Each structure stands twice: as C-alpha cells, then as structure tokens.
UniProtKB/TrEMBL annotation:
Molecular function per GO: metal ion binding
Organism from which the protein derives: Chryseobacterium hagamense
InterPro entries, sorted: DinB, DinB/YfiT-like
Matching Gene3D superfamilies: dinb family like domain
Protein name: DNA damage-inducible protein DinB
Lineage: Bacteria, Pseudomonadati, Bacteroidota, Flavobacteriia, Flavobacteriales
Residues given in the record as a divalent metal cation binding sites: H141
Family: Belongs to the DinB family.
Cited Pfam families: DinB (PF05163)
Keywords: Metal-binding
Amino acid sequence: MTTTATNTKQFITAGQILEHWQGHRNLTRRVIDAFPEKELFEFSIGGMRPFARLAVELISIAGPGTKGIVESRMEAYDHEKFNPKTKEELLKRWDEETETINRYFAQISEERFQESFNLFGQYEFPVYQNILYFIDNEVHHRGQGYTYLRALGIEPPFFWERFPVL
C-alpha cells in the first residue's frame, strides 16, 4: 500500500478575513451615519436598545477583543466605559477602533488562529471563532439598525455595498 501526500490550498487568508471584516465595519459605519442624531441615541422598537448603544457594544468588543487576543489578556469587556453624546463622537471612536483592529489583527500569526482563547474571560474558543463572533455580532446588530432605519422611513445602505465606492 502506498501513501500519497496531497497539497491543499488554503480556503481564506488572514488578510482576506480582515478585508471581509472591514467591509462589514464600513457598512455598519454607514448605517450609524444614516441615522438622524436624536434617533441614533433615542429610537428603539420593542424595548431593544437604541442603535448608538448597539454600536457602543460593537466598539467595546472588536478592538479590545483583537488587542486582548494579541496580548493574551482575558479581561471582561466594558460597554459602559464609552458614552458618546453625539454621532460625530461615536463615528470618531468607530474609526479609531477600526485602526486598532487593523494594527492588532496584523499581529495574529496563522498558528494563533487555531489556539484556544478565553475571550473576555467568558468564551473559550479558537481565536478564529472569536474573530468570527465579532463579525457575526456586528451583522446581527446592524440588522437591528436596518429595522430601525426602515421604521423611521430612511432607506438603509444596500447590504452588499460593504466597501467604499472608488
């Protein structure tokens, strides 16, 4: 009996995952920006949080989570630390956290993606699953933002337009 080695190609690279994630972040930023300021902070449906609070949650998880993975820190996240009062302040922090993600994501080696990591001291999963959680959570909350915008009579950005138009 002979054994044959096969070369397999990687399905997706770390750079492609980051590009995919940043496409989602770009779209979520556009959703934040589509809200009138008052409604961004006050409007809700069925007892859900206003979209500004959902955006603060995303800000409190993605950048600090990525940094925590790189620095092997497992501190609880705190979505009460940042309390923006204006859309401009929220968007500025969104952009800062996007840069934090870019800086720290680039420091995660291919091997680390398979390592188990206890994110925020709560969730023990491989690093790649933690990253996918960040993306999934953002998509989920952005869907709530779409619902709010439609209820306000505002056309949300097309969901497939995740990247800036050049």
